[in-house]
Amino acid sequence: MERRFHCPSCGAAHLVTNPGILMKICDYCRTAIYWDDESALRAGNKSLDLPLSARFKVGASGKLKKESFRVLGRLVYAHDTGTWNEWYVEMQDGSILWLSEDEGELFLEKPFTLTGPVPPFDDLKPGMEIALGPKIGVVEEIGEARCIGGEGEIPFQVEIGETYRYADGAGQDGSFSFGLEYDAGTGAPRAFIGRILELKSAKSSPEDKTAPESRVGLIIRCPSCGKPYEGARVSTTEMVVCEACGAGLDLTEAQAKVVGKNEDPEPLFTFPVGTPLTFDKVQYEVMGRLLYDEQEGTKHYRTFEYVLYNPDAGYLWLSEERGHFTLSSPFHGSVAIPPGIKPKQKVRVGQDTFKFYEQGTQSLKWVDGALPWRAVVGESTHYVHLVKPPECIDREKTGREIELFRGRYVSPEEMQAAVPKGRRIPSRGGVYSCQPYIPYASLVGLWKIACVFLILNVLLLTYSCTSEKKTAVLHEKITYDQYSKEHLTQPFAIKQDGTILRLAGHAPLKNSWLALDFAVVNAGESVVSEFSGDASYYYGTDSDGSWSEGSSNFSSYFKIKKAGTYKLLVHATGGSGINGPPMKEPIQISLYSDVTISWYFFIPLILAGLMTFAEPLGRLIFEARRWQQVAEDDDDD
């Protein structure tokens, strides 16, 4: 049903076509116009001059996942840390949805009928889980917001200038968003539920963006020193810092007001405001910079943070600590941290498992540039840091708001490629919490060579053992009378130079021992090689039962350099008990050619095996360095 009326304040004519509209901001005098069921008009307060949005405009059309929409109107709410835009869009079927724009994020929601009780506003806490019908939501932000203005057509009545209590949050897995608004008089909650959108998924058409002059183009003069702010800012900027005196200027009201001031000397940031940085083929600009400080005893830990902006991609947060960089963006979900948690303890985040690294409180020491929220020097933030290299998650609690950021480690190579040519990034110090382990190329090469060498030796050993012919060249039994006086065996022939032979022997020892000496004698009766061996075997019983030690077998390897005919000279002595006489046991000896000396392969195998541990050992040392700092801090506690 169409509604035609004139503004009670200035008389301008207006036409509203959607029957769900209950409020209109006059396009000319910006007065809020309301009507009741009898169509009686009432004029409310005037709206502030609102900043132009880079994404939407009243009257513009666009698409949401291929579904067309038209922007009817918007309201702007101011709260403790900034403002948010609440756009009202008419879909193809005539339904009206709420499209919230907050710090570069978009939330598409619609009214939701509560089927059960929700906690009163005063009982809400950040991180609290509440039932929304069959869904479970996690409260992320609690506060009071004042409507500072609007434009276009609104599907409900809101008093410009009045304050409303609210709570915002998301599902445990981030699959939906929700909002609760509490009535100022009765305290009754009104619920909205929807989904979180990607920036590129919702945008009005370029031809519809012939907008009126924006406050972005207006001159901002610092109330503290009187000098104009000349730095860059965009439509989502809610705070800038005076370049002359360091005062933080809140831009959410009609006039800029001071909300803090930098008192310390300017820190040595790596990147100036305005520096272009390119990540994933998207060029961002450094809009703002912050310095956080955390004190533990006499130690100070500093984190530099850069707020990056791209008109189409939105905001990213680049953090720098000891020359290490991480790139993060907001995400929504549930991160439950049990009390008394220790470093390395596992924490489930959706379908992923992270490890707890540390938690603490840091204070804001410096801020400059332009920010999409109000950041005041001196405010404190409690953080929890989780890691799954190269990823990390940070849960930050400031006042009555919890924010989650999911980020990744930026390698020096990627960081260097992101900065303008000629600018160098700082050197890294130590190992960062979510820094991935990347072994040196030389270590990887050594590890690969060791693995190949290890496999090759195993194959050679296996082949040698399975293909061993083990040809017998001599079998002889030698009596005590023979070996006690030196005995020459029967001759044996060696057909190839450099032949390796194995001597294997046995004596029927019974609590006795033998010490044997051998010499290889050639046809000219010259000794060409000497070696020795021994055998001992003892057995008996005691209180623990039967026992035995030693062996009645003996063996040796030796090499003959020249082919020819040889004999083996054998001499042995023996005894029994501790100092008893020899038992005069005979000995049986055998000589084998074409044998494999397996221990020749064992040394290379051991060396190759040790070399394969070089890479895992490097990883172990790296991980120890990663956790060293928090382990020491935990011990101090």
How would you describe what is shown here?
This protein has 637 residues and is mostly beta strands. Helices cover 12% and strands 49% of the residues. The chain has five helices and 41 strands. The strands form six sheets. Strands 7-8-9-10-15-14-13-12 form an eight-stranded antiparallel barrel. Helix 2 (441-467) packs antiparallel against helix 4 (599-612). The chain is elongated. The chain starts with a strand and ends with a helix.
Strand numbers in spatial order across the main sheet: 7-8-9-10-15-14-13-12
Distance between the termini: 69 Å
Q: How many H/I helical runs?
A: 5
| Low-pLDDT residue spans | 206-215
Q: Which whole number gives the mean pLDDT?
A: 87
Structural class: mainly beta
> If you compute it from the alpha carbons, what radius of gyration comes out, rounded to the nearest whole angstrom?
42 Å
Number of strands: 41
